């Protein structure tokens, strides 16, 4: 067991970011053991307005130094670069820390949360592995716009970048150890050279995991299959932009973005944040669902457990997961996005009570 506290860098960000982070910190503080020290760093669109920089170097340094990073959400629609794009410091952070694996679990806690018929709790239980630092997002800040006539953003797929995320996906499927372990390669290999290359690397890596089934889906067809047979999926691995889109679609199957946690993981650093953005439409109204952020925090506990071989962290993660499961078993105990009446703070209090 570690003989010191874990230092957690806290990046609250913009919109509903600070509201959901506060609930996650409340949950962590309520876990009598283990112990954490939290250090807050400035970031996001508000930080840009105040300092001219949405991701100051002291924030990046603080994230590198910390044992893990908790992030709310960053960016505001009215705060943009001169080319019209929004500030996306969370994506810059992924690139700076080389957090290549975007891990996005999708789990249905209550039948009342899904728009699908004939699905029970636990039927929807899969993980999207989004390649996080290349793909179409490699063009971020680097695309071109010519003479007001043509604009180009390029899809960048590398062997190294694809190999490591696909390997991560197969390792994860092995760890999940479902009766039928499966990794689905989500691409558009029938049209794009870059995607055919992605698939060929998937095939190479798959040979090292004979106990895990291979499966393929074009991203457009997958959008339909996820609605028709979500039970089929275990782990899905895909390019950055496709991963961005299908994560939101998948979140819609389990009650929306307020229920979808996420972790951005690299070789020696990790950032834990909900799949949602800053949701400015509901910010500062007490309407944000904090569950995605709280579940992201449980992912952080599990990651710390594996990094530091710390059983106490696994116990803590299990406590949080169990508390959320208990709370979510009553559909009335929820925020407005799930047709409930509770405020962000009230739902956080209920989770703390369930711990
Ligand atoms: P980004 O591109 O930064 O990921 P986005 O455009 O996907 O952001 P979000 O900010 O994630 O947009 O939110 C989309 C909508 O989902 C919001 O307008 C809000 O209504 C809803 N939403 C997102 N997160 C939550 C939450 N935690 N609780 C309740 N509703 C949420």
Descriptive overview:
- Helix 1 runs parallel beside helix 11, helix 5 crosses helix 6 (193-206) and helix 7 (219-228) runs parallel beside helix 8.
- The protein has helices spanning 17-30, 45-51, 57-65, 89-96, 159-176, 193-206, 219-228, 240-253, 291-308, 311-328, 344-354; strands at 6-13, 36-40, 68-73, 101-107, 125-131, 144-146, 150-152, 182-187, 213-218, 235-238, 263-265, 270-272.
- The chain has 355 residues and is an alpha/beta fold.
- The protein is 40% helix and 17% strand.
- Strand 11 (263-265) and strand 12 (270-272) form a beta hairpin.
- It contains eleven helices and twelve strands.
- The longest helix is centred in the middle third of the chain and has 18 residues, at 159-176.
- The mean pLDDT is 94.
- The strands form two sheets. It has a ten-stranded mixed β-sheet with strand order 2-1-3-12-11-4-5-10-8-9, with helices on both faces.
- The chain has two domains: 1-100 and 260-355, 3-Layer(aba) Sandwich (Isopropylmalate Dehydrogenase); 125-252, Isopropylmalate Dehydrogenase (3-Layer(aba) Sandwich), CATH 3.40.718.10.
- The structure holds adenosine-5'-triphosphate.
């Amino acid at each position: 067991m570690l003989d010191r506290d874990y230092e957690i860098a806290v990046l609250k960000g913009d919109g509903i970011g600070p509201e959901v982070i506060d609930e996650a910190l409340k949950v962590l503080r309520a876990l009598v053991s283990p112990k954490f020290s939290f250090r807050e760093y400035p970031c996001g669109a508000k930080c840009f307005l105040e300092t001219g920089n949405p991701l100051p170097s002291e924030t990046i340094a603080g994230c590198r130094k910390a044992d893990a990073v908790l992030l709310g959400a960053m960016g505001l629609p009215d705060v943009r670069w001169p080319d019209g794009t929004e500030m996306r410091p969370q994506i810059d952070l992924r690139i700076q820390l080389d957090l290549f694996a975007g891990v996005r679990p999708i789990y249905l806690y209550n039948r009342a949360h899904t728009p699908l018929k004939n699905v029970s709790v636990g039927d929807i239980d899969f993980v999207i592995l989004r390649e996080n630092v290349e793909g179409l997002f490699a063009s971020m800040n680097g695309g071109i716009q010519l003479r007001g006539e043509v604009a180009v953003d390029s899809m960048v797929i590398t062997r190294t970048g694809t190999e490591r995320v696909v390997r991560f996906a197969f390792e994860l499927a092995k760890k999940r150890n479902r009766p039928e372990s499966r990794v689905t390669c989500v691409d558009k290999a029938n049209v794009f050279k870059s995607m055919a290359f992605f698939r060929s690397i998937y095939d190479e890596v798959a040979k090292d995991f004979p106990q895990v089934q291979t499966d393929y889906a074009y991203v457009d067809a997958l959008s339909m299959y996820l609605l028709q047979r979500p039970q089929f999926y275990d782990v899905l691995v895909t390019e950055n932009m496709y991963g961005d889109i299908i994560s939101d679609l998948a979140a819609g199957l389990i009650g929306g973005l307020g229920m979808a946690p996420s972790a951005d993981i690299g070789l020696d650093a990790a950032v834990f944040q909900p799949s949602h953005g800053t949701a400015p439409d509901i910010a500062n109204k007490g309407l944000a669902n904090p569950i995605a952020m709280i579940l992201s925090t449980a992912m952080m506990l599990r990651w710390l457990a594996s990094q530091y071989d710390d059983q106490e962290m696994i116990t803590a993660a299990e406590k949080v997961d169990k508390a959320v499961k208990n709370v979510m078993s009553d559909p009335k105990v929820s925020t407005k996005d799930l047709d409930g009446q509770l405020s962000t703070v009230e739902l956080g209090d209920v989770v703390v009570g369930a711990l």
